[in-house]
Structures are given as structure tokens and as C-alpha cells.
Specification:
38% of the residues lie in helices and 0% in strands. The protein is an all-alpha fold. Keywords: Membrane, Transmembrane, Transmembrane helix.
């Protein structure tokens, strides 16, 4: 992945030292040796009349180096953990000792059995539970 960004840097093109928006027009003007405001005017006219999308400008801005050589796309990829091989780095999780699992709750107590006629005092009727009706 670094070879792609190094190839872009080797072109010698840099975004302008005094950017208004992203510095792309100032970089083009510096490379061509013309006034930056003229390039800005041409780019705006192309966006309005020729249908040059703003997305093209953004892609150029993302892929071209600034004066210090930093490329926004490369900086972003490094910040999200994409390594030099182009694969995402393994996420780093804190290493904490395994927590013991909580004990399983005890099984509910069995339902009481309805009293039999032998257990009832004299004169008391055996009334069934509501669920037995």
C-alpha cells in the first residue's frame, strides 16, 4: 500500500501552500506556473458548465500530497489500522483475566402437593387447587 502513495509522491505534485478549500487548484497553478485564482475560476466553471463533479475534486484532494508530503488517504488508513500490506490490523483487546461465570440459579422449589384426605383434620373438606379444576 505504501508503494502506491510513494508513487504519487514521486510525481512531484503537491497541493498548494495557500489552499482556499483543499489546495488542489493552488497545486495545479504552481505546477503550471499560472495564477491560482485563474485555476480556481476554471475549475468552478468546469463544475458548473461541464459537469465536472465535486467528487473528482475530492478524490484528487484525498490522493495528492500536501507540502509536507502527507497524503490524507494514507493518514486515514493508518488511523483506522490498515497496515503497510493493505490488510487491516488485528483489533487489540485488553487482556484481562477471565471472569468466573456466575453460578447457575437454583432450581425452583417443587410445588407443594395437595393434601390428601388423610392429612386433613376432621370436618375439613379437601378443596382442589385452582389449576386442578
Amino acid at each position: 500500500m505504501d508503494s502506491i502513495f510513494n508513487a504519487i509522491r514521486s510525481t512531484g505534485f503537491r497541493r498548494g501552500p495557500k489552499p482556499v478549500l483543499g489546495g488542489v487548484c493552488a497545486g495545479i497553478a504552481r505546477t503550471l506556473g499560472i495564477e491560482a485564482n485563474l485555476v480556481r475560476l476554471i475549475v468552478v466553471a468546469l463544475m458548473i458548465f461541464a459537469g465536472l463533479p465535486l467528487a473528482v475534486y475530492l478524490v484528487v484532494w484525498i490522493l495528492t500530497p500536501a507540502q509536507d508530503g502527507s497524503i490524507p488517504a494514507q493518514t486515514f488508513l493508518a488511523s483506522v489500522g490498515v497496515g503497510t500490506t493493505g490488510t487491516a490490523a488485528a483489533p487489540q483487546y485488553p487482556t484481562t483475566p477471565a471472569q468466573p461465570t456466575p453460578a447457575q440459579p437454583a432450581a425452583p422449589a417443587p410445588m407443594p402437593t395437595p393434601p390428601s384426605s388423610l392429612d386433613l383434620p376432621e370436618g375439613v373438606q379437601n378443596v382442589p387447587y385452582a389449576q386442578d379444576r
